């Protein structure tokens, strides 16, 4: 009897294993993808956290050592660095600083960034308030050269003097770069640390049983808002009404969702940068792809994965900041969910059948076709920012929308061919027979 029972149990395990091995890879995410969505206007911050204050990452680190260790190695921890405390934070060659620079290394207190470009914050009294302003040159890490920097050239050009010395970081930079500033107007910590994503932690630190906001445990669409608070280009929320114009916000326009804390409804604090399909802007190409960095959210909200509940943290570890444009996990990141012949694709049986390229070639990397480099970190940088639209942009669309050929996935490798030739190659592969190719007026077939 025991032998029969053992055999039955073994058969059940084998059958269950066979079924599990043949389930779509997306199966573990089924609950996440099918959960009933909550409203965008609903406050999801735990009741115990409301009214709490910011305590800084050193307090969080006492209990969350592994997460803190991973974060300390990430670039979020190094977005703002104090030069006096750590001179090695400076990546620029100050011996080459142009003579007309309005700052020196000795005057600078903080660095801003280090991966693609680095700017320098200098103490300044602006509007009678102790503040910071940015130097008129920034270091381009990609080209290893100094280049002029005029922050007032951005969308708020009608709201500030065209003078770096009169341009405060408090209204434009500090909300995303200093933990706590967005919610309190106080520079709690010079980095993007724990409470930037989890909200103020004083009550949780006092008693761990007091909940703190955890994006991974909330509504998937709302999960993304923690990233979108900074990784989405915006406008001052006050101009949403027709009665407020940019010039009405003189010395007061804000380039971050002023007052927002993780868990609260971001839509109540943030007005996304405007975009209409077919209209090119300073921030987007006419198809909606980014022209600048920090636009992931603007692009992603138009993608089907966003609508179905796939979140930023499904692809990016929020503590380690892994799987970036420079440290990609390759096809493995995408194939966590996708698999050949599955309902969500690729529908072909092999990688070569899907891409028409050798399996170990650049043309068979998912991100090369679905996340092409369409944007720059500065006007003089190469195209290094990858799109988060994810849908494949055909050569015909690139031309019809007036985008640079270099932003097209096919042309970025096959620079010896024209967009028309590359489009015809796709036709020869049978890629366009049943697909709807959206083109603006006067596009070409």
List the helices and strands in order: HHHHEEEEEEHHHHHHEEHHHHHHEEHH
Distance between the termini: 72 Å
Our estimate of the beta-strand percent is 5-15%
Q: Any idea what the radius of gyration is? A: 24 Å
Shape: globular
Number of helices, counting only DSSP H or I runs of 4 residues or more: 18
Largest sheet: 6 strands, antiparallel
Helix content range of the residues, please? 10-25%
Determine the structural class based on helices, strands and strand pairing.
Answer: alpha+beta
Q: Mean pLDDT, rounded to whole units?
A: 93
User: Which residue ranges are poorly predicted, with pLDDT under 50 across at least 5 consecutive positions?
Assistant: none
Q: Total number of β-strand segments?
A: 10
List the helices and strands and how they pair.
Blueprint: H1 2-22, H2 30-34, H3 57-61, H4 65-72, E1 80-82, E2 110-112, E3 117-126, E4 129-134, E5 137-140, E6 145-148, H5 174-177, H6 181-184, H7 194-198, H8 202-206, H9 220-223, H10 225-228, E7 234-235, E8 271-272, H11 296-300, H12 304-308, H13 312-315, H14 331-334, H15 351-355, H16 366-370, E9 373-375, E10 385-386, H17 395-400, H18 419-428
Antiparallel strand pairs: 1-2, 2-3, 3-4, 3-5, 5-6, 7-8, 9-10
